[in-house]
Fold this protein.
Amino acid sequence: MLKIEGMTLHYGAAQILWGIDLEANAGQVTCVLGRNGVGKSSLLRGIVGHHPTSGGGLTWEGRNLSDMRPFERARAGIAYVPQGREIFPLLTVRENLQTGFACLPSRERRIPEEIFELFPVLNSMLDRRGGDLSGGQQQQLAIGRALVTKPKLLILDEPTEGIQPSIIKDIGKAIEILRNRGEMAILLVEQYLDFAVELADQLSVMNRGRIVFSGAKEGQDTTEIERLMSLT
């Protein structure tokens, strides 16, 4: 379980997050919704250690993450697919996947066949440079690279952004397969409401650095969620 209690985060004197409470559990997709600029990506950067939090509790499997550096969090089983994908354009697909080896012991440094089962296109493009792939293929590569690390918590920051509908469906199917295995917690940040509602077990809506709604998806009125997402 990822458990966040009262998280705050600042950029200099500006406070971005205000008392965030959130949980993500194995076998579930926890989705955080909200328009641009409400603090969703800042929340994820705080979780993975790319920006220090200012206060509150942050634990993963009972371990305090607050004092752990990003690579230590990766070794603890936390994988992050950032907004914009951030693949290495001059490295091949194979080499991009192999960068996930960094947090693994040497005996486990191999690319799991599961990645090619989820994203078959990657297997046919292993020797192509990452920069030559389409945006959707790069997104699949970024997710595949995260899965190389054998995560227990997979964090995805707007994986549908700028992606063609057919690949959005492929990514959705992959997330569903990973969730249904029951071994991984998935934390998904999205603006695309239909995609999120279809996959999510738990939904949270952010506005102005705060959680303004949180609960199980079942029985929720998506019209009300959409209204909360549009608040200014």
